Amino acid sequence: MYTVAALYHFTRFADPAALQGPLKDLCRTQGITGTLLLAHEGINGTIAGPRAGIGAMLAHLRALPGCDGLEHKESTASAPPFPRMKVRLKREIVTMGQPDVDPRARVGHYVEPAEWNALIRQPDVAVIDTRNEYETAIGTFDGAIDPQTASFRDFPAWWEANKQRFHNKKVAMFCTGGIRCEKSTNYLLSQGVEDVFHLKGGILKYLEEVPEAQSSWHGDCFVFDGRVSVSHGLREGPHLLCHACRRPILPEDRDRPEYEHGVACHHCADETSAEDKARFRERQKQIELARQRGETHLGGDHGA
Fold first, then answer.
1. How many other C-beta atoms can be found within 10 angstroms of the C-beta atom of residue 35?
2. Strand partners of residue 241
């Protein structure tokens, strides 16, 4: 069994590049895989490995400047959820493309998972799902508004086009683990919205803490690792990943005529050209050859 830790923390790193090497070394020695993003604004990522290795990494991260308050969310995976470890330098740890947004200055009111249901059922509260459309497609909360964005960068433009819908409303926002809401709530506050709330710990914390019988969540939650989705109690969900378009699909979707392993699914079959599909087939061929040799291809998949 693998321990999976999802984490983020906004702080000011003067030199993120100086942190990259030691983090890579620690991941290598502790058998940790996944992705960590470093920027001047902080750190974000999901990692997996043995229980002791994850503990060592979390201790190292909390010893970094300004990171003693770093929180994380844990779950488990029955198979390795990541093929390798990546520690990357980025302009933002979650890309919104709004240089004036600063979650360290102020954010919306945090709402504990146990209090979320009561909030979102109030008639003067509008609930907004800040995730992308391929995530919202497999699960969301009762009555949530789906902006149908392709990326988080699209959210400010969606808000500008739709803000009149929320006049005299309280706005409650949620995302997978909480990081996007740190930025989106700061953004709405800067736009003059007075009552802004967000789900503390995100959907993952809600699914961990709120009993399914009392839940306002329907479906599964997309996660950015080999499990693809999780459900109540953070149990591994049924979804697979189309490795052509990176959207979640169900096992039965592989029986659709549009499906070709590693090449296309019913979501993307009409979105790619014949040349694209030929390239994907060649990639899949190399993945299979590497697998037969007992090697891990860098473009390897998790069986979808």
1. 16
2. 248
Question: Which residues lie below 8 Å from residue 197, measured CB to CB, with a gap of 6+?
Answer: 108, 109, 110, 111, 119, 125, 170, 171, 172, 173, 185
Spatial separation of the C-alpha atoms in residues 291 and 297, rounded to whole Å = 7
Contact call for residues 54 and 24 (beta carbons, < 8 A): no
> How much is the pTM?
0.90
Among residues 175, 242, 265, 268, the one annotated as catalytic is 175
**For the chain, what percentages of helix, strand and coil (3-state, to nearest 5) are there?**
35, 25, 40
181 is annotated as an active-site residue? no
Lookup result for tokens 């953004």: 187
- Residue in 146, 132, 69, 137 with CA at minimum distance from that of residue 96: 132
**pLDDT band per the 50, 70, 90 thresholds, residue 265:** very high
- Calculate the alpha carbon distances from 156 to 107, 162, 167, 180, 300 in Å: 16, 10, 16, 12, 34
Q: Can you list the domains of the chain with their CATH numbers?
A: 2-89 (3.30.70.100), 109-219 (3.40.250.10), 239-304 (no CATH)
Tens digits of per-residue pLDDT, 227-264?
A: 999 999 999 999 999 989 999 999 999 999 999 999 99
CA distance 136 to 139: 5
At 296 the pLDDT is 61
